[in-house]
Records
---
Amino acid sequence: MKLPEGVSSKDFNAAMDEFRGIVGAPWVFTSDEDVGLYRDAYSPWWDEPEELVPSAAVAPATVEEVQAIVRVAGKYKIPLFAISTGKNLGYGGSAPNLTGSVIVDLKRMDKVIEVNDKRNFCIVEPGVSYFDLYKYIQDHKLKVMMDIPDPGWGSPLGNALDHGVGYTWNAYRDHYGSHCGMEVVLPNGELMRTGMAAVPGAKSWADNKYGYGAHVDGLFAQSNFGIVTKMGFWMMPEPEHFLSCRVSVPGYRDIVPLIDVVNYLEDQGLIGFPRYASSLDPMTLMMEPERVQGDKELLAMYSKPGVATAEEYEKYARSRGIDYWNVLLTFYGPKDAVYANWAYAKKKLAGIKDVKFEEVESYALPLDEATKQKVHHQVALGIPNMSIFSIGARSKVMPDPADGHVWLGSILPRSGEELIKAHEVFSQAMHDLGISPVVVGPFTAPQEWNHRTFIFMAPFFVSRSDKARNAKVREQYVKLVEIAAKHGWTEYRTGPAFQDVVAKTYSFNNNALLRFQTALKDAIDPDGIIAPGRGGIWPKRFRRDA
Amino acid sequence: MKLPEGVSSKDFNAAMDEFRGIVGAPWVFTSDEDVGLYRDAYSPWWDEPEELVPSAAVAPATVEEVQAIVRVAGKYKIPLFAISTGKNLGYGGSAPNLTGSVIVDLKRMDKVIEVNDKRNFCIVEPGVSYFDLYKYIQDHKLKVMMDIPDPGWGSPLGNALDHGVGYTWNAYRDHYGSHCGMEVVLPNGELMRTGMAAVPGAKSWADNKYGYGAHVDGLFAQSNFGIVTKMGFWMMPEPEHFLSCRVSVPGYRDIVPLIDVVNYLEDQGLIGFPRYASSLDPMTLMMEPERVQGDKELLAMYSKPGVATAEEYEKYARSRGIDYWNVLLTFYGPKDAVYANWAYAKKKLAGIKDVKFEEVESYALPLDEATKQKVHHQVALGIPNMSIFSIGARSKVMPDPADGHVWLGSILPRSGEELIKAHEVFSQAMHDLGISPVVVGPFTAPQEWNHRTFIFMAPFFVSRSDKARNAKVREQYVKLVEIAAKHGWTEYRTGPAFQDVVAKTYSFNNNALLRFQTALKDAIDPDGIIAPGRGGIWPKRFRRDA
């Protein structure tokens, strides 16, 4: 067991005893076997001394127990790290930023407080998973749609606090942005509610975000100012109809006008998640191995020493009659309006030479059980599942069998020109760093999960046995963060291993933002009890420069 | 001249001299005549010792000048109060929370940094008004629509920082919520940027709100953690078509299903601002005096000692064939989709007995100049003007000629049942407080300016000559805030005169939220330089209980 820095065994054991008194002995975990379950399954430091590991875990069932735990932690100066379902794989899992922190596992706090399908919101505890919430909605026959990320085992609350994202309509995809009101245990153990939740007896917890005065909610996401114990979310009412349609364009540079039109449609709220893709992306193609195998020209391009250019890819695509880019547009609403919006989209896109249009899926809602199983992209309909996640995670479609991945997700402005520049910069940088040309190239499509934001994603594959490989991944990742930042592209999210590096790229005026966040942290959590290091914010006690 | 508490004349004069050195003598205002212009024209303490008045004003032209001013203020411990256009009448105007504060008038910082109609955003300085921004958009023939409040002379930046609201589609109406990235001068004079604005060279200032880590922007709105000098906003691209349609229902309780359906339409993004109204509202009727005059039955009801009930109003309405409630629905988008959405709305509303539907305005966009002048409700089309404001402000349609008004704006959940309860509670309370029954009654419609939030508005009319009346208004206002809070309804916004009272209604756990905000304030602004008291947050130096 690795104790937190500066905490004696005696104090630590005394704290564990007090924790047992609060939650009951079975809910305090200190054996290596139990605590091992809270390791980051995809840690880029697996089994190395630097691996970020907790010392113990405690699982409260109520808010009062969380408060008591925080107070005991304060008394013995033991850093805590709260998780909701802890399934944040690829972004750190359930492991803390500081080795020796005690995990506060909130999985037992799994109450759905309210789901309202007249004002279209929910209020949930941290341990409620997307699967749980979906079941609740189905069981109660409520007419609201969830917005969910790829893996359904996560928690709406935890995902939002990690700035997680989804697939449905507009602002609902921004999970933090669609939250409304919080209950938080502060570092001193006090309970605070924000927005309308701060008004005793108010029924508008999840109607109005701000209430009155300074809006403090932002301090509790991707950060460490408290442990959130309840959170409200705006939800989308179930529409009458869902339609998805594919728009395909043949040329590499057709992505520029394609994005312009899609932005126009999206910012008016005519479409949901626009799912950009390239038919040339090896990640996509590997899911259809029969298409790749035997195509020596394509395989040669993928393994070309150096970087195959967009021109080469385009030439190949045109020779085979393959369209370079496509985007799946989704429409939610009354059936007639959905089809009118699709007709309008076609009209606005008609100017792109040789553009092709294809209707993919069209469903009246609600879906019956048989249809649910047939749906290509269930998350677009708010149906939680694990299918995309399980393709990505450790499966054979990834280059080299890997034990896990960490994501680099750089924020780009929503423009084709900027995407093309990113192709050039990332392809070259990754080539220079010795990364396989199948990972990122002129075929990498932007992800618009977060409303109005392009994320340029690159996976890095880590190992549980090959430490040299992990060392290389860490080095590559950090270098890419730095190269991207030079072009104004920085990450929207990252695991504890890289949070300091990422936070420091938001560097305007000698990291004024980080210094401001840190000054706030020192005021609210002088002993650094809550998640030291999370979001790049280190309390004075653990700050290297303090 | 009233100096700020605890500041000597000598220090004050030295600061003014330094301010003159920074901005030039003509931009430092200390004469009573000049400083008088920064009084709140609608102060409920007009000409009384308690009136909140500044000591002086300084008008910087650049961010560097703002920084220098803040540093000088810190040196002499002089509280500052920044305004953008200062036109926030009804909510405090340009006057500070603490008498003797120096106004930092940002009107000269009037640069439109960027308006982008491919990614649909703008970045502006504080002194840019809605009129300015509109002119810029027109001059550059940009295809974006602004979301604006009633008076066009305000500032997008200032309005957003006051949690101001507008009239177009969905989330754009929430002006703070639609902001994206800030530049702020902190209380120590340092410059900070947030979100993507914190990334040197990034082009995504106004694409992505969060960047990475704790999101601190909320601390700068309705609050006092810094002076915001630049701000990005998401904008709506100009749609192809605008349609507005009126839905009328005859019965008082028809508001319940009406609201349920409108919520459903809105949360799917099918409609813009739903403008609820009652044909029985005296405020509305006074704009059509010919309808009221001579209708003795109606006038008797308005002046009825006690409170006329909803039943009485409904009986009157039915006897005259007047519909009790109506809502103007607005649709933005492709013409065919707009009409399909309207057809769908009619279908969903058809279940309300005797519901009536009427198409009001239908325009292809962009509008030509002649059509712009004809439009009934220009703000719904993003055209800034002063017409609604000038009706409300000091005009003859108000009960008793008044010199101004202060608004009570209580947040209600979006439900008809809750609105009915609010009618009962507010009507009774206002009757008990001796307020005219024409101000609020069972005819008061909810305002849904802020996406997903009902605001229940009540104006209070103040005088420049009748101090007894103002005293009564202040007493009534505070009592109503307290009565409303008992029912879970609290204010979304208020002027400095009432900010402490309102902030304290967010009282969960012994005002944990306000205590948290105050602790942050003390850490960031230990000398209480920036807008002490704003948003109910008093720095230690000025705190009565400190």
---
Amino acid sequence: MDYPKILEEITAETKSLFGKGKVATYIPELGKVAPEQFGLFLQLNDGTSYETGDSRVKFSIQSISKIFTLAMAFGLVGEELWKRVDIEPSGSSFNSLVQLEYERGIPRNPFINAGALIVTDVLVSHFERPKEEILRFVRALTGNDDVYFNHAVARSERETGYRNFALAYFLKSFGNLKNDVERVLDVYFFHCSIELACCELARGMQVFSNHGLNPFNGERYLTASQAKRLIALMQTCGFYDEAGEFTYAVGLPGKSGVGGGIAALLPGQYSIAVWSPELNGKGNSVLGMKALELFTTKTGRSVF
Amino acid sequence: MDYPKILEEITAETKSLFGKGKVATYIPELGKVAPEQFGLFLQLNDGTSYETGDSRVKFSIQSISKIFTLAMAFGLVGEELWKRVDIEPSGSSFNSLVQLEYERGIPRNPFINAGALIVTDVLVSHFERPKEEILRFVRALTGNDDVYFNHAVARSERETGYRNFALAYFLKSFGNLKNDVERVLDVYFFHCSIELACCELARGMQVFSNHGLNPFNGERYLTASQAKRLIALMQTCGFYDEAGEFTYAVGLPGKSGVGGGIAALLPGQYSIAVWSPELNGKGNSVLGMKALELFTTKTGRSVF
Amino acid sequence: MDYPKILEEITAETKSLFGKGKVATYIPELGKVAPEQFGLFLQLNDGTSYETGDSRVKFSIQSISKIFTLAMAFGLVGEELWKRVDIEPSGSSFNSLVQLEYERGIPRNPFINAGALIVTDVLVSHFERPKEEILRFVRALTGNDDVYFNHAVARSERETGYRNFALAYFLKSFGNLKNDVERVLDVYFFHCSIELACCELARGMQVFSNHGLNPFNGERYLTASQAKRLIALMQTCGFYDEAGEFTYAVGLPGKSGVGGGIAALLPGQYSIAVWSPELNGKGNSVLGMKALELFTTKTGRSVF
Amino acid sequence: MDYPKILEEITAETKSLFGKGKVATYIPELGKVAPEQFGLFLQLNDGTSYETGDSRVKFSIQSISKIFTLAMAFGLVGEELWKRVDIEPSGSSFNSLVQLEYERGIPRNPFINAGALIVTDVLVSHFERPKEEILRFVRALTGNDDVYFNHAVARSERETGYRNFALAYFLKSFGNLKNDVERVLDVYFFHCSIELACCELARGMQVFSNHGLNPFNGERYLTASQAKRLIALMQTCGFYDEAGEFTYAVGLPGKSGVGGGIAALLPGQYSIAVWSPELNGKGNSVLGMKALELFTTKTGRSVF
């Protein structure tokens, strides 16, 4: 497969989409990012890699961090986790709160904010210093110690993230949040503020495409069965209200973030990260979605 | 792979689940089926096949018929179809009506009843005799002319299916049903009443695992891209409120029916049908779900 | 109290509102009414009456008919009725269907369409010829035999009232509609098509302001306690999503219809009917609402 | 009217209901109240009064305080208030959050918690020391300086009222809460913790039954029109999900609280307060509701 040529084509074919989306501004700090950027990094399981564009520029991974915290929590408590958070797609974002009410405080899945707060709560219960542990975990997965929180982004979200406060207190009212609300939110805002470049993010996804084994340090983080299950979750729930559209158009399990990043993978074969800050109306990167659709079409390699 | 041994093990390991579920009775005719039955048929893309148990006993495919009518309608109108029905998971069944109201009469996906009624409506618009065309289509896909509607089941559902009448009139009130409500429902109830045995159903799924080409008559029914897209839809939306659970536990795209059947496939490799009439609380076959979970675990062959 | 002068002032002060609303067109036949009409009829309990404008022009009473059918059904089955329909305000119209689903087919109150269908169902169960009985009842209450259905309006609604079909089938799916759906809807569409002039409608409301006694034939139709209870229901539930607004601005119990009519009363003192076909965004007559607000302000006589 | 005899009968006829309800425990401090207590105080507009039972025992007025804060805020900002909170009944409590979401952060009415938080927010914006101002206001209305917050109850609610935190942050996320969430909640929890006896509460309602004039100090607090409007609001929205039931059975505007108190009035004639701590499933006092129903039936004096 001529990957360099495919990446070149993708760069050329997505360029015209600059300006079609909007940089997220609901977290004021995120609104400061220059919009016309695009990066892609492909990490094959055999160790080779290919990249194009702004693949070495750090960006705020935001919700993509949820797969890392989920992997940590799932590794710690296993299937017990599903007693506190379900594994079903959430339908429309519109229903998030009423669903939570109807289902008595059990979030639909660990990738909607309510579910991710439960996952964070598990980490807060298990670790004395959960923020440090999360950083350590992401550094290990990416094989790179140059990974940090962006304190300004975390603070910015804390000051404006009223809806997340509402969700957390709502979970607390159902008894499904064990720790202090402010403490859980603090850890949550920080892990969302982690910054990675595409090259690091694609490598960080290898643990999933590699059946639970971290190729960078040879350690096993998840059983093969656990890795498979988290991948299944990414497939059905990883793209908010666009999970169906993404599965339909791209056919890869993955996770997106409002920072404009998308991480995806083909089990046993490769992981891939794209980034471009302009988002469509559903909060996913315009160029990122298109780039992945072109990639699976041109390579003919998707899960379906 | 020693398929005969695997199928034998599955039969042995699921046997203890008889009695854990309940035969569907909301359609009175369906309630007459003997509960302790189990069949499985595996059709490899290379033409070989394996089977066990009641794999030659006909059963009511019910909602599984929706993938056949969807394939027909998608072949006829292509991407235009998604203007009238979305491709996103539906969240919880609880929200079906409010979601339809919120989204102004556009069903979340073609596998929930509201969406399947839109698909049927497309067929009613295109064919003078839609019921005959559906039968012809299913016969061609299964390579078997011995395929019929069960008139008693169709009548039984027509007499008690008030909720489907409500859905159809609700769609009509939004202008998203073009034909007479009674006529669309008639065709809908009939296509749900089709009876197939596992051996026929597994063969009928080959068109999807075979990239749109019907291996039994050599004809192309869908482009490779269209087949891929319908498979993606089965993955995210094929199991009602248990789509996430099924993807998580089994990892195959497919579709279930309240008759107790489940059809699934691994693109390019195999299609498989299981049947056992006892259902869990979410309307999926208890033994069928377990059998497929065991099958992908034992063979190690799923999409993830 | 100088009623003639007050009515004259009201006519003058509401005139400028012509053109601020829109004649209902969702029932095509209703759309044919000339918009710039306004009538008011005041019937004091002492037998004297005052009127202004188009108070003798017949109009389609539509939902106002629900108070007459409710009085009939309540008279027949008494408090038993509230096992099948609740007596609480419905919140927003948006929730009608989900609330019905959440509350297992028990409509919130007898004035929303779902509840009125239950009331009609009671009449269909009790009478062999319910349509004739309803006409007879309304004729007796209004002291006028010149009261008829408008067949064209009833047919027009039957042909386009898909949402009412959806509601009726939904109720049927919960087992809360005893008779054939088509038959109940037929009676429902007909009773909504009754035509009255303000003078007749105001008189028809006397039974409520007169503690259950029909002053025109001396017969008792409801106990004083029953009359009081139906009046309470009109107060909390009579104006759809504007019940609060109406109670706030006018302070009288009553009922509106999309034909542009509003009937209201002050227990023990008077009944009043206004009519003007142009509706506000919530389906209530623009001039009618204003006229009643002016009337209670100028007379200082409301329930509060 | 022989009020002493009527009150005696009511006491006798409600006694058998002790034990049919449950003392509220969701605020732990409230759960400490002895359940078998019942008091009633009737204040006629002519200055005479009648009482029975525990009419001089202080209890936590909880949500009844919302009518006092509403009267303060309405007096301050007038009709402007309705831009931030609506005046419609809320339908079912079940929908509170989804309705808030659907209506973009505008609560349905000022008596549901979300609406009362908006009202409190107005007071926080207008007063430097809102808690002191609220106390001063309630003391003036009741003509009694012996009125205090219960700090233990306020603290108890602050420590367990996660759902109110969720609501407040949700309002904040829509921009409909101007002040700091914690500060608004603090004032809210304190005003709910005010303790009054029936004799004080009935007197405090005189300002409403007396057209806005406080009979105890001769000062006007509301215009007659404003008083009428707040009374209309109590009628349609004062009893949560039982507003219809209460209007139906009692026929008086009023407000209940989970402390077991109910305040009600007949405009121009009397105000009345009852208290008994055991609540029905919808959070209203069992004996209190019954006592008021008996009172309006026996006296024949209600708004309808």
